[in-house]
């Protein structure tokens, strides 16, 4: 495995057992998120789930939302909205960079 793959947050590097240990959850929790479509891990040639760092972050956030008392539907929606907001902020930053503005939003003089 090359180092560049390890830098890729979407590279499926973790087994279900490793992912569960890193997140401090049981493996059925991760399988339930897969069944609900919250995370969709890739499969190895043998059919075993492989999770990326990005998916671990999503699963970890779901765990926090469950711990705060949210049900699956509301936790999924919160996660979706957070992801959309992050994407919007990234797009705004890219557009500002194209316009030559700094992060404060002030136009160059």
TrEMBL record:
Name the SMART domains on file. HTH_MERR (SM00422)
Segments forming domain HTH merR-type:
13-81
Q: Which UniProt keywords apply?
A: DNA-binding
Q: What GO molecular function annotations does the UniProt record carry, in alphabetical order? A: DNA binding; DNA-binding transcription factor activity
The name this protein goes by in its record? MerR HTH family regulatory protein
